[in-house]
Specification:
It is a single chain. By secondary structure, this protein is α+β, with helices and mostly antiparallel strands. The chain folds into 3 domains: about 110 residues, 2-Layer Sandwich (Beta-Lactamase), CATH 3.30.450.20; about 70 residues; about 150 residues, 2-Layer Sandwich (Heat Shock Protein 90), CATH 3.30.565. The strands form 3 sheets. The chain has a 5-stranded antiparallel sheet with strand order 2-1-5-4-3. Strands 7-9-10-12-11 form a 5-stranded mixed sheet, with helices on one face. The protein has a two-stranded antiparallel ribbon with strand order 6-8. Helix 6 packs antiparallel against helix 7, helix 7 packs across helix 10 and helix 9 packs antiparallel against helix 10. It is elongated and about 110 Å long. The C terminus is likely disordered.
């Protein structure tokens, strides 16, 4: 059995080893470029690294023991306080789970709020009880500046393109009319080509503007109760002429009894129109595009499923996971038909309504896109930036 002196020596050795480990741990945390701080269960600061000092201007000495509300006073971009309603630290302690990448505004020692991205996690005792939280945050001022600069450039360019394009389309219509009066079939064909290309550019401009708005902030939703079948029927009717010119049979199959959903008809109509237009474009003459609806009540929350299926060549398997990426165009595309933004816009608009969209190849046929919209949803009313 060890003597009392040997036990005391062992205790001293373990204390020294523990101190060294704590020093290493503290050195690592202090070396992290991002701001890192911890709090107890009352949200009072217990640790504050040099990254937090650099970003906020508050020194470790002056923040210890103070609450995060007194120091950072997180708000949203409109200056509305999050401390009592949506504080990331409070949420992570209540939920007992991490919160990732929440963009907020933070108070600084210089008096000017700074945009930061925060991630939080609860601190757990051995028995699983939440005893505090840790928050990691980084300054995103430069990212916000670049995002605004990019959005301003895109808006300026697209706006400046709209005026001459409107003139081109107007003269194109006049040319078609005059060629038709003169009986010049070849002239009508050439002038119609001008209009088609101009309308394609116009569509691309609208896509660029939509993506720019999504990236730069929010796109407000005008939510209202509206019959889903009426929305789908409206889109199909608008595309009958396009399908007829392509020699494609456009069909509508609706399931009776689907209750009205709450959504922005303008955005959802555009999302569905993008899918149906793509299906028509990539379906050979004589093929079929089917737009259908059905009610899904298998889960706790009922969903309406809107499907757009075609009998084209389908989507290459290598492209299935990327078709909703911005500026990505599958290899099945023939010619320069667009900027690869149509499906990205579909995804953004559908997810803004609490829904989802997926792509698959229908066995023995072409591509199939499915939109799922929850019927009993709590929508925030904005498209959040990615």
């Amino acid at each position: 059995m060890p003597s009392e002196e040997e036990l005391m020596q062992e205790v001293a050795r373990l204390k020294e080893e523990l101190a060294r480990e704590r020093e290493k741990f503290d050195t690592v945390l202090q070396s992290i470029v991002d701001g890192v701080y911890t709090t107890d269960s009352d949200r009072e600061v217990t640790f504050w690294n040099k990254g937090a000092e650099r970003i906020t201007g508050f020194s470790s000495a002056e923040v210890m023991g103070k609450t995060c509300k007194e120091l950072l006073a997180h708000t949203d971009e409109n200056g509305v306080s999050l401390c009592e309603t949506a504080c990331p630290l409070s949420e992570t302690m209540k939920q007992g789970a991490p919160i990732y990448g929440k963009n907020v505004m933070s108070r600084t020692a210089w008096g000017k709020p700074a945009p930061i991205s925060v991630s939080c996690a609860p601190l757990l005792a051995p028995d699983g009880k939440v005893v505090g939280a840790v928050e990691v945050f980084r300054d995103i001022s430069e990212m916000k500046r670049l995002e605004k600069q990019k959005a301003d450039i895109i808006t300026m360019i697209t706006h400046d393109l709209k005026t001459p394009l409107t003139v081109i389309l107007g003269y194109g219509d006049m040319l078609v009319y005059r060629m038709e009066l003169a009986g010049d079939k070849e002239g009508v064909e050439f002038a119609s080509g001008i209009i088609t290309s101009g309308e394609r550019i116009q569509s691309m401009i609208e896509d660029f503007l939509s993506i720019s708005k999504i990236e730069s902030g929010v796109v407000p939703l005008n939510l209202q109760q509206f019959p889903v079948d009426d929305l789908v029927r409206r889109v199909v009717n608008d595309l009958l002429v396009l399908a007829g010119k392509k020699g494609v049979n456009l069909r509508l199959l609706t399931e009776p009894g689907i209750p009205p959903a709450r959504f922005d008809t303008r955005l959802m109509e555009r999302a569905l129109s993008n899918l149906a237009t793509n299906a028509i474009k990539f379906t050979p003459a004589g093929g079929v595009v089917t737009v259908s609806t059905r009610l899904l009540e298998d889960s706790a929350k009922p969903f309406v499923e809107i499907t757009v299926a075609d009998t084209g060549h389908g989507i290459p398997e290598a492209d299935l996971d990327r078709v909703f990426d911005r500026f990505y165009r599958a290899k099945t595309s023939d010619g320069f038909e667009g900027a690869g933004l149509g499906l990205a816009i579909v995804k953004a608009f559908v997810e803004a309504h609490g829904g989802s969209v997926s792509a698959a190849n229908e066995p023995g046929s072409g591509a199939m896109f499915k939109i799922l919209l929850p019927l009993d949803r709590n929508v925030s009313g904005a498209v959040a930036p990615e």
